[in-house]
Amino acid sequence: MSFILEAKNLKKSFDGVVALSDANFTLNQGEICGLVGANGSGKTTFARIISGLIRPDSGLLYLYGSQIHLKSHLEAEKLEISMVHQNLSLIPEMTVWENINLGREFTTSLGILKKEEALIKASQALQELKVNISLYDKVSQLAPSEKQLLEIVKALSRHPKILILDEPTASLGFKQVEILFEKLNQLKKDRVSVIFISHRIWEITKICDRLVVFRNGKTVGEVDFHQQPRDEKLIIPLITGKKENEKEKSIHEKRPFRNFDTHQTILEVDNLSKKEKLYNISFKIRKGEIVGLGGLNGQGQEEILLILSGYLKKTSGKIMLNNKEVLIKNPSQAIERGIFLVPGDRQKEGLFLNHNVFTNLIYPQVALKKQKFLLPLNALFQTVSTAIQTVSLVPPDPRKLVSHLSGGNQQKVVIGKWLSLSPKILLLNDPTKGVDVETRRNLYKIIADLSNQGVSVLLYASDNEELIANCDRVLIVFEGQIVEEICGDDICEENLIACSLRVQ
Ligand SMILES: Nc1ncnc2c1ncn2[C@@H]1O[C@H](COP(=O)(O)OP(=O)(O)O)[C@@H](O)[C@H]1O
Ligand SMILES: [Mg+2]
User: Fold this and answer.
1) pLDDT of residue 480
2) What are the chain's domains?
């Protein structure tokens, strides 16, 4: 059988950083092939080569059995290859319909835009994925999940023969993922071939026919689900390169039950409301407790975190720390009180990407220092080295530019920078979104260690598995209200989904 696409011995380096050292890949017609690997294993680089955005240093690429040399993205599009980009390829200042049609303007032979045709096409494309946004909205105004869906719609509207999806589900809720999967299955029936990149192994085992594993830029394994079971346990050792250890706990193993009823209440939120977003939110968090915010995406969970961290103003309600009402009108007031946010978009909000690890880690200390004197350098070095160790940064190098770190390690820097300021409450906004299995494990351990040291944690996660693995208690948010509280052993996938969907 000949492959629709085949890549042999692809190599690619960026200024000495090896992204791919020996990537091999095959794709059959009408199959969904997963591509997995830790952060930095070369998946995106591979996808960009296949879609003509970058050229490999060496290696061979075949399409329908013939060798091809993709010189540009346009050339790949002509060969009916489309890609859904991990970092999205939308233009924020343009509208939804303009973005969908970007790069293939509907023009007459005289160069006049056939706007009506473009609008109809865009509207059809949105409907196909049941995306409920206006054609005239500016992309910058859309929610992250809407942007992601639009990015998918844009790729689909090109009716590709080969569709590459680079972590398309990271910011989607599970209902949206279901719609996407329905669409992918339909594409499969239409003999379209799909490369599906995801960190969510359960998505891979659900949707894919086969999967290929990359490790450090090399193809290290393949699992064909027609012959092998759809089992996470087979895949994770391939990704990590470690032999499955019987005793090693699954990262999604449930946190053992801990009862905090008699512990000191650190944070109390009483009847918190935000116009059109949140209604009478009340809850308590006790010292060292890890409380989750669950529910479908976009039900107000992020707004709760943003109000508590001073980025968003509440309309009414009280916030109490150690039984005393406090005002949190801006982020500095939250920070002064030991409440720190690890933001959702770490690249935009949490880091100075063009600075090194050292600068990022000492920034809060320096910024909070009221007097103008510099802090003693050796104390700063000590802070940085402790933080690097605590979060197990890879590589443990303070001189490394943050933009050169993998997503998971960038996230570790965001958490690390708060550690020197002795956090009382850590607010985590979907901290492992787009982070590989190994780094997730590290982050879960950091969360557990902090909790054992008495830090209270409020965690919003778009993955139910993450709530199960970390939380002592989960509050389900639905349309701006807390509709359910799940504790201890009741925190399981079925309960979380049932409560999120409001089914009993
Ligand atoms: N444009 C680039 N410049 C420098 N290094 C890069 C660039 N793109 C990727 N890399 C590096 O190549 C490696 C593979 O990255 P990537 O393909 O993004 O991996 P993945 O998608 O599996 O997380 C990483 O070490 C990354 O830092
Ligand atoms: Mg990637």
Assistant:
1) 92
2) 5-240 (3.40.50.300), 265-351+423-500 (3.40.50.300)
